[in-house]
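In this section we walk through a basic example: taking a raw amino acid sequence and producing a predicted 3D structure, encoded as discrete structure tokens. The instruction is simple. Fold the sequence below.
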Amino acid sequence: MKIMSYSIETKYKTIEMKEAGYTVKEIMEALNIKNSTQVKTWWRWYRNGETYRFYQQRGKQYTYGKGVKELSEVEQLKLDNKNYNNSQISTNYYQNIYKDYIENYFRFIFLL
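The resulting token sequence is shown next.
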């Protein structure tokens, strides 16, 4: 299977057509896009305000700061803040699980 690479113009034309109410299948046929998931991914990026991802090369880990240096300072700070918040959420989640486990463990021990 051949790996496809689409131009920036194709990506933005896809978004324009999606906003105009075209179906994914119609967009795929009009722009010669091979997979419906690609259209859905571009649409998700657009809705989430991640249009900078249209300019990324394929297969890079941009969320870890190894990608395009052309992100504005504000976008980079937003990305860093999002990553920090996600790590805090998971840390708090596991701390709460551990706390509940310890409380239940000691409650069980003292009942015996």
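Looking at the output, two observations stand out. The two ends are 63 Å apart (CA to CA). Helices lie at 8-19, 24-31, 36-47, 73-111. In the next section we compare this with other chains.
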